[in-house]
Amino acid sequence: MDIKNSNAPVSTTTYNRNQVDEQTGNIYEAISVISKRATQINTEMKKELIEKLDEFATYNDSLEEIFENKEQIEVSKFYEKLPKPHAIAVQEWLEEKIYYRDTNKAE
Question: What are the alphabetically sorted keywords of the record (predicted)?
Protein backbone atom coordinates (compact mmCIF):
# COMPACT_ATOMS: atom_id res chain seq x y z
CA MET A 1 0.00 0.00 0.00
CA ASP A 2 1.18 3.49 -0.78
CA ILE A 3 1.61 5.13 2.60
CA LYS A 4 1.71 8.65 1.18
CA ASN A 5 -1.72 8.31 -0.44
CA SER A 6 -3.40 6.67 2.53
CA ASN A 7 -6.84 7.86 3.57
CA ALA A 8 -6.05 7.20 7.23
CA PRO A 9 -7.02 10.00 9.62
CA VAL A 10 -4.28 12.35 10.76
CA SER A 11 -5.95 13.08 14.08
CA THR A 12 -7.30 10.77 16.77
CA THR A 13 -10.39 8.83 15.76
CA THR A 14 -12.72 6.56 17.70
CA TYR A 15 -13.43 3.21 16.04
CA ASN A 16 -16.30 0.82 16.55
CA ARG A 17 -14.92 -2.14 18.50
CA ASN A 18 -17.17 -4.55 16.60
CA GLN A 19 -15.65 -3.47 13.29
CA VAL A 20 -12.11 -3.91 14.61
CA ASP A 21 -12.58 -7.46 15.92
CA GLU A 22 -14.93 -8.58 13.14
CA GLN A 23 -12.24 -10.49 11.20
CA THR A 24 -10.79 -12.35 14.18
CA GLY A 25 -13.61 -12.46 16.69
CA ASN A 26 -11.10 -11.39 19.33
CA ILE A 27 -10.19 -7.75 19.98
CA TYR A 28 -6.79 -8.62 21.45
CA GLU A 29 -5.84 -10.69 18.43
CA ALA A 30 -6.94 -7.92 16.08
CA ILE A 31 -4.92 -5.34 17.99
CA SER A 32 -1.89 -7.65 17.89
CA VAL A 33 -2.11 -7.93 14.09
CA ILE A 34 -2.60 -4.17 13.74
CA SER A 35 0.37 -3.54 16.05
CA LYS A 36 2.68 -5.76 13.98
CA ARG A 37 1.61 -4.01 10.79
CA ALA A 38 2.14 -0.59 12.39
CA THR A 39 5.69 -1.65 13.29
CA GLN A 40 6.31 -2.65 9.66
CA ILE A 41 4.96 0.66 8.38
CA ASN A 42 7.03 2.61 10.90
CA THR A 43 10.18 0.79 9.80
CA GLU A 44 9.45 1.50 6.13
CA MET A 45 8.77 5.18 6.78
CA LYS A 46 11.87 5.60 8.91
CA LYS A 47 14.09 3.90 6.33
CA GLU A 48 12.68 6.06 3.54
CA LEU A 49 13.08 9.27 5.54
CA ILE A 50 16.66 8.48 6.50
CA GLU A 51 17.53 7.73 2.86
CA LYS A 52 16.08 11.08 1.76
CA LEU A 53 17.79 13.04 4.53
CA ASP A 54 21.14 11.37 3.80
CA GLU A 55 21.09 13.09 0.41
CA PHE A 56 21.39 16.42 2.23
CA ALA A 57 24.01 15.30 4.74
CA THR A 58 27.29 17.14 4.88
CA TYR A 59 30.02 15.62 6.96
CA ASN A 60 32.03 18.36 8.63
CA ASP A 61 34.15 18.20 11.74
CA SER A 62 33.28 21.80 12.51
CA LEU A 63 30.25 22.31 14.73
CA GLU A 64 30.22 26.02 13.98
CA GLU A 65 28.98 25.58 10.44
CA ILE A 66 25.33 24.59 10.42
CA PHE A 67 23.55 24.93 7.14
CA GLU A 68 19.80 25.25 6.89
CA ASN A 69 18.65 23.47 3.81
CA LYS A 70 15.10 24.42 2.84
CA GLU A 71 14.61 21.21 0.86
CA GLN A 72 15.60 19.14 3.89
CA ILE A 73 13.13 21.07 6.05
CA GLU A 74 10.35 20.51 3.50
CA VAL A 75 11.02 16.76 3.44
CA SER A 76 10.90 16.62 7.22
CA LYS A 77 7.66 18.61 7.35
CA PHE A 78 6.09 16.34 4.73
CA TYR A 79 6.78 13.26 6.84
CA GLU A 80 5.50 15.00 9.96
CA LYS A 81 2.16 15.67 8.25
CA LEU A 82 1.63 12.03 7.21
CA PRO A 83 -0.76 9.89 9.25
CA LYS A 84 0.92 7.96 12.04
CA PRO A 85 1.81 4.30 11.38
CA HIS A 86 -0.82 3.00 13.80
CA ALA A 87 -3.55 5.01 12.04
CA ILE A 88 -2.49 3.63 8.66
CA ALA A 89 -2.43 0.08 10.06
CA VAL A 90 -5.93 0.42 11.53
CA GLN A 91 -7.24 1.81 8.24
CA GLU A 92 -5.66 -1.11 6.33
CA TRP A 93 -7.19 -3.55 8.83
CA LEU A 94 -10.67 -2.06 8.48
CA GLU A 95 -10.40 -2.12 4.69
CA GLU A 96 -9.23 -5.78 4.93
CA LYS A 97 -5.93 -5.06 3.18
CA ILE A 98 -3.90 -6.95 5.78
CA TYR A 99 -3.52 -10.68 5.26
CA TYR A 100 -4.26 -12.54 8.47
CA ARG A 101 -4.30 -16.23 9.33
CA ASP A 102 -4.40 -18.13 12.61
CA THR A 103 -1.52 -20.62 12.73
CA ASN A 104 -3.09 -22.48 15.65
CA LYS A 105 -6.11 -23.58 13.63
CA ALA A 106 -5.88 -26.73 11.54
CA GLU A 107 -6.13 -26.12 7.82
Answer: DNA-directed RNA polymerase, Transcription
